[in-house]
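_Full entry_
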Amino acid sequence: ATYYLTFTGVPGTATYYALIMTVYTWIAKGAWFALGYPYDFIVTPVWLPSAMLLDLVYWA
């Protein structure tokens, strides 16, 4: 979905920022895990699919 939105035109602003937030979240998770703290990597940010859905509705 991300690939499709990125290469088939200009993605919505919400999706763009959600993508950045997700990357930063993954970096934070990696740093937290590297320090030896247990963290669940299965938990994915909720705002990414919701923002994508928002953009799809907006651009439809």
Observations:
- Residues 19 and 48 are 7 Å apart (CA to CA).
- The radius of gyration is 14 Å.
- The chain is about 70% helix and 0% strand.
